[in-house]
């Protein structure tokens, strides 16, 4: 959810979190929480979601935590086919300023060492 935070946080549209852990269905309605659950509850409070239980035997795809490292998408190069559908248009075309975009693009570059680095003029 942290990775998709810009798209999900504050959204009016509810989204589903699928899990094979039955007890998580009741997480949002539990009244007595331990400290770790309180932290998770606070983090999740910024999202409009519903937890849905799906038995592991009915899961179509394995979750990211159960994948081997070599089976995960390669985010560094950006040429992984699985990532091509990740791009979204967040700003409507009529509000997009191509001049400003090009100016900002000339100041910033993506680096494999750091998420974003600036180029000084």
Automatic annotation (TrEMBL):
Highest classification ranks of the organism: Eukaryota, Fungi, Dikarya, Ascomycota, Pezizomycotina
Pfam families, alphabetized: RT_RNaseH
Domain of life the protein comes from: Eukaryota
Protein name: Reverse transcriptase RNase H-like domain-containing protein
Keyword Nuclease: yes
UniProt keywords, alphabetically: Endonuclease, Hydrolase, Nuclease, Nucleotidyltransferase, RNA-directed DNA polymerase, Transferase
This protein's record includes keyword Nuclease: yes
Reverse transcriptase RNase H-like domain ranges (all copies): 2-47
């Amino acid at each position: 959810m942290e990775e998709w935070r810009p798209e999900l946080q504050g959204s009016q549209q509810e989204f589903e979190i699928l899990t094979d852990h039955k007890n998580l269905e009741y997480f949002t309605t539990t009244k007595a929480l331990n400290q770790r659950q309180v932290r998770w509850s606070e983090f999740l409070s910024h999202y409009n979601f519903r937890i849905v239980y799906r038995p592991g035997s009915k899961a179509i795809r394995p979750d990211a935590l159960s994948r081997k490292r070599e089976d995960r998408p390669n985010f560094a190069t950006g040429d992984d086919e699985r990532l091509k559908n990740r791009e979204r248009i967040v700003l409507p075309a009529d509000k997009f300023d191509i001049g400003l975009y090009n100016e900002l693009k000339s100041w910033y570059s993506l680096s494999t060492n750091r998420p974003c680095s600036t180029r000084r003029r």
